[in-house]
Amino acid sequence: MKKIVIAMLVVFSVALVAFAATSPEKVNLAEQWGLDTKKPAVEFPHAFHQTKNECIECHMTAEGGALKSIKTGKEFNPKALVASGDIKKGKTKNPAHDEFCWECHKAKKVPKGKSCSTCHK
């Protein structure tokens, strides 16, 4: 029985490392979303967030992929929001902040989680 448990842990660990290796360490959100920015683009520290959160907290599935609104739980499509003008250069009040970033930072009690300089560096 002990050998089975150890074998399962080894398999799980290898699978976890392999899955994590396919995720980017950082994501330039302006480039990813097709957004022209006024402030420095957010270099989203994906690897850091993976150490603090489960994938399903930000993505529609545990495998990653499509994002979800932290506020509503529905799919969050930033490229479409940029295309529609809901997310645009110099506009602080936008769905990226309100439904995604700030909503999570508020729930997780991130120090200065709504301060521009926390993410726009």
Automatic annotation (TrEMBL):
InterPro entries to which the protein is assigned, alphabetical: Cyt_c_III_dom, Multihaem_cyt_sf
Signal sequence segment: 1-20
The protein's name: Cytochrome c3
Molecular function per GO: electron transfer activity; heme binding; metal ion binding
Transport found in the keyword field: yes
Species annotation: Denitrovibrio acetiphilus (strain DSM 12809 / NBRC 114555 / N2460)
Residue ranges of every copy of the Class III cytochrome C domain listed in the record: 37-120
Keywords of this entry: Electron transport, Heme, Iron, Metal-binding, Signal, Transport
